[in-house]
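User: Predict the structure for this protein chain, please.
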Amino acid sequence: MCNNCAETSQYWDSFEAILANWNGEDSQLIPILQQLQESYGYLPEDVIERLAKRTGIFASKIIGVATFYSQFRLEPVGKHIIKVCFGTACHVNGAENIADALCHELGIKIGGTTEDKAFTIESVACIGCCSLAPVIMIDDETHGRLTPETARTAIRAFRAKEA
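Assistant: Here is the predicted structure, written as structure tokens:
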């Protein structure tokens, strides 16, 4: 049942702590999903199934909510999230070229995670740094005025810092 842990009881401890606050109202679903995702890093299928059983909310409704809101993830993500801005300023200044360079550098597509689970690349509508376009964020670090080569350099430097 538990695909993501060595010890089942530890895996479910945070689930039980989060569900202790459930008062039976559907309006609590999004905050509960947010807490579960914070705990697990994403929303595993077995967690969704148990949530459905415990709350009486159909799993299909839970998945519908999770897929409607872009903040939720149904797949595990890397240790570091790279957000590529595709807002208007970034788009007209070459965001697509930046994304292509990053995808090539890491060997994944947007939305994908590297095999070593180090990086996930996401596209976002706007980071809010239009004067620095094109922009990416690696976790909480903002990198702006990028070219494909400086984007690659930023990833390489981040990896070197982590090593």
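The chain has two domains: 9-68, 80-162.
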